[in-house]
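Researcher: Re-running this chain for the archive, since the previous output was lost when a drive failed. Same request as before.
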Amino acid sequence: MAGPEGESRGALNIDASPARGACRCRPRPPRERSLLANRAAYWLTLIGVYFLVGVLFFYSGKSKLFDENGHAPAALKKQFDGTFIDKVPGVDTAWVIIGILEFGVFVLIVLSVVTGEFLPHKRKSLLLVGLALGFMTFACLSFGQTSVGNNEGTASLYSYFASTAIIFLLVRRLPPNGSGDWLASPPDRRE
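Model: Regenerated structure tokens:
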């Protein structure tokens, strides 16, 4: 009599069933593991995006608008003294505009959460608009830094802009815009 793998059970008395006390668990099939990995990566990614972007823009906007009451620090006023920004719109006004842009990103992030955009089946329109407003904010900050010849500050802002662009593209790849199997290997490399 042959067992499941074609082994003879007669002479050796091989039992195809698990021994007493042995684990009857089977490893998850590759498709199920892939689904779990996709879900975990989706949620961890979105939590990271919401937390990172939300916290960054909340504290930046809050400090400009509320902690400093819309008044630019003295060192910043000195840096922009005599420049275009000092005359139009004025350093304090520019400071408030940047604070509004930053706090606006935070508000869009909160609205995205409140409307449930974090769910896999919901489009992430508010989140994407918030990230795009982040681009605008970094562009304005970069303009200011470039206008006073602060090349190191401008380079730093390009890093923020590029990081935000990567986050933007990542969010565009998440469901429902992208595939639900968004971590899958290319079609020619299946498990």
